[in-house]
Amino acid sequence: MTASRSDWTPYCEPRGSPGPPRGGGGHVRDTKGIAVVGPAANRRPPAGREHPVTGILSLIFGIAGIVFVLPVVGPLLALGFGYAARRDVEREPDRYVDDLGRIGRILGWVALALTAFAGLLLALAIWLVLDIGTFTPDGTVALRLPAVI
Predict the structure, then answer these.
(1) In this protein, which residues make up the domain named DUF4190 (predicted)?
(2) What are the residue boundaries of the structural domains of the chain, listed by start?
(3) Lowest-confidence region among 8-22, 74-88, 115-129
(4) What is the pTM of this model?
């Protein structure tokens, strides 16, 4: 008789006992004194914790900032929601996990740096296209600003 995955339960026993029965091709992993046998040995057990909404929003705005959908606002919102998610996790550590909030904060900082770099490149391009300044042979920059009356 072959059991389906839904009927299958892992065989667990304390460390130091003779060991689990072999057969069936399951994997064995020893975690904190309990040997888990079977397909469940490769998966992390569900911890029962969830992601705060602020962490999910942080990830969304971080991605939007990285792909320049929201170049300035996205990273700022990602950082704000990411730090709010961290506060939620610190307030209720048994309920929430900060994975998405941390990723959103990292993406927010990277997107903010990319936005600043893109802004500097844009300013340099405008400066060169409008021919506002020229480089002199001694390495300094001579600015020619238009006369305003």
Answers:
(1) 55-117
(2) 10-45, 53-135
(3) 8-22
(4) 0.58
